[in-house]
Amino acid sequence: MLVSYLKGVGPKKAEILKAECNITTIEELLHFFPRKYVDYSQATRIADIKREGATVSLVGKITQFELYSPNGAKRQRLSALLKDATGVIELTWFQNCHWVLEKFKDGDEVVILGKTQLFNNRYQITHPEIEKVSDEDSELSQLKIIPFYASSAKLKKWNLDSRGFRKIIREALKNYLSLIEENLTPAICQKYQLIPKKEAIGAIHFPSSFVQLQAAQKRLKFEELFFFECLMAKRKWVVQSQHQSRPFAKIGHYFNTFYYHHLPFELTNAQKRVIREIRHDVAKTTQMNRLVQGDVGSGKTIVAVMAMLMAVDNGFQAALLAPTEILAEQHWKNVHRLLSPLGLQVDMLTGGMRKSLKKRVLEDTEQGKTHILIGTHALLEDTVRFHNLGLTIIDEQHKFGVLQRSKLWKKNDFFPHNLSMTATPIPRSLALTLYGDLDVSRMDELPPGRKPVKTIVKTEAHRLEINGMIQRELEKGHQVYVVYPLVEESEKLDLIAVEQGYALMQRQFPNYRVGIVHGKMKPEAKEFEMHRFATGQTHILVATTVIEVGVDVPNATLMVIEHAERFGLSQLHQLRGRVGRGGEQAYAILVASEKVGYEGKQRLLAMASTNDGFKIAEYDLKLRGPGDFLGTRQSGLPEFKLTNLATDGSILLLAQQAAFELIKNDPQLALPEHQMLKKFLMNYVNQHHLEDLLA
Ligand code: ADP
Ligand code: MG
Asked: What pTM, to 2 d.p., does this model score?
């Protein structure tokens, strides 16, 4: 039913709700959950504020409004003081100043919610959520726990601040709660101790206690995860019951010759274990779907090579897919060097290749002359036909997203076994969610003799010292990366920064050659610069994150990362994995801007304190949430409204268990008692555009 049926929601408000929150129906409004809750009785006393970056709720009187334009700027700024019995704190607004002035008078008692900041040695709060606690507002004084809703300037203009939302949601709950249908079976609710849906919807908006709120959250988070996990379970079931693969029955000549005569080093225990796991999978008639997670430098390539040899030994071709041309080429060189002594034909296919060469490779691949084909997305094109593809390997698989995984499978009348590899160590909870349909191997050991990269946090003020370190490494004959962030919104400025950095390095180190690579360069120019650095013709490479993935230059021992606070932690970890690939001690210098705040500093120090990619990933996920962590678009994850994958691991496990059990017992959801689940699952798939997951 449309929201405009609600008392208090006219056509204009309905329009705004649609535009700003994507809410058109009353059911959707009831699924617009509070962002935060404040318990009056638990408010912080102003005198107890001891830390920057803490989220606090305060109750007090607001006074001394002051509207001004700093330094004659056009933008106005509003400040006010909040007083309680213990102290005073300043509140500041850069936006919505007039809304605040209209709503609140000097002396009003208010409750606010916000993050503390330290400014000129005094705490202040910018853009707090603010609410009046006046006696006319009978609702607020009745509520112990106040829900706060995400609002925006536009919403506020139409009185849809937290208070406005509370009003219409209360109305919806009173008259339209019957619209909410139960979508889990009694059996599941009972087994996992979940309260009914209607009750949960009521309590998530207006909980009478935190215990009740928790029960509501558990129920709704469970549901959010359950339907997604059902899809994962279904995918796994489809693979196991319908994806027939050819078993690699034997370990043969190529594998053994390589293993006993050409292996360039002793395998680590982790490598041996993963190879055994793969061996076990590919011997079966059902498709292998295995993900190898291993930190940068843990030696995944050789594992891929051994797996490909298993395919070749049994008369099959293998394909290796890499996310960039640089990486594809590097893999090709490596694998070619390792395997041509065995008389195997290893070919490469990329978009930028010469036509004649491409034609030759396509022909050889189709005729089966090519044993191993390595390439970029170009491998996915329809023109690429294999003679008998037995194994696909996807490197840095998170760069491809969930949906592309299956593309390569469709190149056969049977399903090739699939091995995915990733160097972004994904926290357990996220791996379970995202790859619930895969078996996961962890390579949690680095090859011996590797010296961990020493990571140092510096600010701009230490420029001389940083240059000194660069000089020292160069004098030792080593090479240096200088990395700049490049994000889309401020692309132009970022580009200028990279170019300035390049000019600066040339001036600072006139006796050395400096190269530059960034995403705006033509692919050939990029390749050219990368090649010059990789072969030691340039000594310093000024770059954006294009170098992030997989590039191997063992002589590079120092990486300076500018504006380090703007990178995600996992990204920083990937970046610094580019150095320390030879035997020498390597360094990463994280250069933070002077203005970086408390949290930013903590993040960088966390980076410096550990080299364990899994730990960093957990921390990163906690800070940024899964969307940012993986990049929402490519992650293939639906957005979870309530669930935080970093902290809701236990609910995730329950939901996963319930989903896999359900699909195991009734894969087609054919039983009468599962019809309702089936309906909701289909709705869920449509709503989140996940049709491809079922293909
Ligand atoms: P990644 O897991 O990041 O893909 P690579 O496969 O590129 O790592 O391996 C990183 C480096 O470590 C390569 O130079 C590789 O030759 C080397 N390497 C891999 N395994 C071992 C090992 N068991 N002993 C010594 N060096 C190894
Ligand atoms: Mg690799």
From this structure: 0.71
Cα 41 from chain centroid (whole Å):
37
> Residue with the nearest Cα to atom 14 of ligand 1?
581
Are 2 and 140 part of one and the same domain?
no
- 90 located within any domain: yes
Q: Which segment of 116-120, 327-331, 587-591, 624-628 scores lowest on mean pLDDT?
A: 624-628
- Do 7 and 65 have their domain in common? no
Identify the residue whose tokens are 């919403």.
155
The protein residue whose alpha carbon is closest to atom 26 in ligand 1 is 447
Same structural domain for residues 55 and 134?
Answer: yes
Residue 423 lies in a domain: no
How much is the average pLDDT of 445-461? 88
CATH number for the domain harbouring residue 470: 3.40.50.300
Residue 74 falls within a domain, yes or no? yes
Q: By residue range, what is the domain housing residue 25?
A: 1-35+149-179
pLDDT at 574 over 50: yes
157 and 28 within one domain? yes
Cβ pair 296, 253 in contact under 8 A? no
pLDDT band at 632 (very low <50, low <70, confident <90, very high): very low
Let me know whether 126 and 46 are in one domain.
yes
Q: Is residue 550 part of a domain?
A: yes
Ligand nearest to the CA of 294: 1
Average of per-residue pLDDT across 243-253: 90
Q: How far is the CA of 523 from the centre of ligand 1 (A)?
A: 27
Q: Are 617 and 630 in contact (CB under 8 A)?
A: no
Ligand nearest to the CA of 297: 1
- Flag whether pLDDT at 257 surpasses 90: yes
Q: How many domains does the chain have?
A: 3
Residues at CB less than 6 angstroms from ligand 1: 265-268, 271, 294, 296-302, 423, 447, 552, 581
Is the pLDDT score of 368 beyond 80? yes
- Distance set, CA 173 to CA 16, 30, 85 (Å): 21, 8, 37
Q: Which two tokens stand for residue 543?
A: 């770059």
Give the distance (Å) from ligand 2 centre to CA of residue 395. 7
- Ligand 2 mean position to 66 CA, how many Å? 57
Instruction: Give whole-number Cα distances, 301 to 295, 331, 351, 553, 659, in Å.
Output: 12, 8, 22, 15, 34
What pLDDT, on the 0 to 100 scale, is given for residue 279?
Answer: 97
Give the pairing of strands 129-132 and 109-119.
antiparallel
Which atom, in ligand 1's list, is nearest to the CA of 302?
6
